[in-house]
Specification:
It is a single chain. Helix 3 runs antiparallel to helix 4. The protein has a single domain, classed as Spore Coat Polysaccharide Biosynthesis Protein SpsA, Chain A. Helix content is 33%, strand content 26%. The protein is α/β, with parallel strands linked by helices. It is built from twelve helices and 13 strands. The strands form three sheets. Strands 5-4-1-6-11-8-12-10-9 form a nine-stranded mixed beta sheet. Strands 2-3 form a two-stranded antiparallel sheet. The chain has a two-stranded antiparallel ribbon with strand order 7-13. The N and C termini lie far apart (59 Å). It binds uridine 5'-triphosphate. Uridine 5'-triphosphate binds next to strand 1 and helix 5.
Length: 286
């Protein structure tokens, strides 16, 4: 029986070019969805799945991304003096979500390279990868849904979602056969195919359970699309030698890595919050 997943990597060292100009001063993982930075939702999802050992891969100088999860003593003292117990508890809860190890990626050499940076932290066990741009609201944390598949079938597991045809050339696309309960056995993966060459409309979404063998395959992978070291190629390299599955997860997904996606995520999250859902339209002048 494969052991349960204990550790995760959050790659958060991208350039965020699709979010310029704001990302020239504020790292994308700190952009807010209502009142929490994007990265908060990813760490909270991992914590809800029982994964509390997290390596955060960040760019040099952007420690503020991990700093959000550390105690802010002067702020805590100020809230204590004011007797604001609710806000104080909220801040302390954030620090208790996870034990975060910061790993620097000196140069943005792609997602695969970012994950390779966490090799020593992970060691020789299966681990989770969560891309913070991909927000998923679900009853069972999406990463826990993947971990279940990994416990049942072994090997690697990818999160998958059916997408519109026009979205296919921007995504990693899965060639697979269903094995039941929304789970697919993966035969091939192709990064950003032209629509007419895509094997399906099933796209990879930013949640993975990976086996430690992926590190060697990333290391030896030849440079893929955009000259970056691609994770998709390294996972595809496991097909045939170990099980690779995809799960069409239960939940609502928004890619918040672009301004329209971030806007949609804010509207979605506002609708979920009782205190906000009624007031938004009152606040916007006609
Ligand atoms: P993206 O492909 O979305 O790139 O990365 P990006 O830099 O975040 O955004 P754009 O495309 O420039 O607008 C997918 C994930 O991989 C991380 C990113 O932080 C994001 O979570 N990543 C990407 C790294 O950690 N390092 C890299 O070198 C590249």
């Amino acid at each position: 029986m494969p052991q349960s997943v204990r550790k995760a990597v959050i790659p958060a060292a991208g350039l965020g070019t699709r979010f310029l100009p704001v990302t020239s001063a504020v790292p994308k993982p700190l952009l807010p969805v209502i009142d929490r930075p994007l990265i908060h939702y990813g760490v909270a999802e991992l914590a809800a799945a029982g994964i509390h050992e997290i390596a955060m891969v960040i760019s040099p100088g952007l420690e503020a991304v991990a700093g959000y999860f550390r105690p802010n003593i002067p702020l805590q003292n100020a809230l204590e003096e004011r007797g604001d117990a609710a806000r104080l508890a909220q801040l302390k809860d954030i620090c208790d979500l996870a034990e975060i190890t910061v790993i620097e990626q000196a140069e943005a050499r792609g997602l695969g390279h970012a994950i390779l940076m966490a090799r020593d932290f992970i060691g020789n066990e299966s681990f989770a990868v969560l891309l913070p741009d991909d927000l998923i609201w679900s009853d069972v944390p999406a990463i826990a849904q993947l971990a279940r598949v990994s416990a049942e079938h072994g090997g690697s597991v990818l999160a998958a979602k059916r997408v519109r045809r026009e979205a296919i050339p921007g995504l990693g696309i899965i060639d697979a056969d269903p094995v039941g309960n929304g789970v697919q056995r993966v035969h091939g993966l192709v990064e950003k195919p032209p629509i007419e060459e895509a094997p399906s409309d099933l796209a990879i979404i930013g949640r993975y359970i990976l086996t430690p063998g992926v590190f060697d395959r990333i290391e030896y992978a030849s440079a893929g699309a955009l000259g970056e070291i691609q994770l998709t190629d390294a996972i595809a390299g496991a097909i045939g030698s170990e099980p690779v599955h995809a799960i069409e997860f239960e939940g609502d997904h928004i890619d918040a890595g672009t301004p329209p996606g971030m806007f949609a995520a804010n509207v979605y999250e506002a609708r979920r919050r009782d205190e906000l859902s009624g007031v938004i339209s009152e606040l916007i002048p006609d």
